[in-house]
């Protein structure tokens, strides 16, 4: 058996079209990855394994958001929801001109992990998820979990009651949570807080209802 015979699922990728670069929280004109990274670019970069690539799991790209405005009237969720719209077009094979994907690419999206406002508490989280369901349409079934980056947030964010209750709610719904911390630049406290977050989210919860945590960011040790 050769490496090209082994089915490959890319478990964590970020894509975005050039038309929506301004919605990315981290984007600047000088950023080396601040240009379009969509399916055309992705397939060119993975061409050596194309014959065995079955697809990928898309993880949210840190779109700009405003938690307070989201709670108030939903306006602070505009850009994460725009990402859901874009992903729906990929999954349904209905691209807009210049977005960097084609109809034949739709089956490559095996799962989606969108952004979610975990610090805002269960009521806001439920309302947001319902908005995602409506915007996702036929692509809704691809959503397997949610992410809210905590790598650049203040200490204690992961331990706020609203955050923990939101995690417990996700678990009851059968969804996972992608943990985005950065030990390399953030320090040991992020790992310590993360472990306490997991403990609080699971404490007293039936095994079947415990939220699954996916560790995926910079856990490097130097």
Secondary structure elements and pairings:
Blueprint: E1 8-13, H1 39-45, E2 53-59, H2 67-73, H3 78-92, E3 109-113, H4 122-136, E4 145-147, H5 161-172, E5 176-179, H6 183-186, H7 188-202, E6 212-215
Parallel strand pairs: 1-2, 2-3, 4-5, 5-6
Structural write-up:
The chain has helices spanning 39-45, 67-73, 78-92, 122-136, 161-172, 183-186, 188-202, and strands at residues 8-13, 53-59, 109-113, 145-147, 176-179, 212-215. The chain is an alpha/beta fold and 222 residues long. The chain folds into two domains: 1-148, no CATH class; 150-222, no CATH class. Strands 1-2-3 form a three-stranded parallel beta sheet, with helices on one face. Strands 4-5-6 form a three-stranded parallel beta sheet, covered by helices on one side. The radius of gyration is 18 Å and the shape is globular. Residues 218-222 have low confidence and may be disordered.
Structure characteristics:
222 residues; single chain; three-stranded parallel beta sheet; 7 helices; alpha/beta; disordered C terminus
A few lines on this structure:
The protein is of the alpha/beta class. The protein has helices at residues 39-45, 67-73, 78-92, 122-136, 161-172, 183-186, 188-202, and strands at residues 8-13, 53-59, 109-113, 145-147, 176-179, 212-215. The strands form two sheets. Strands 1-2-3 form a three-stranded parallel beta sheet, with helices on one face. A three-stranded parallel beta sheet has the order 4-5-6, with helices on one face.
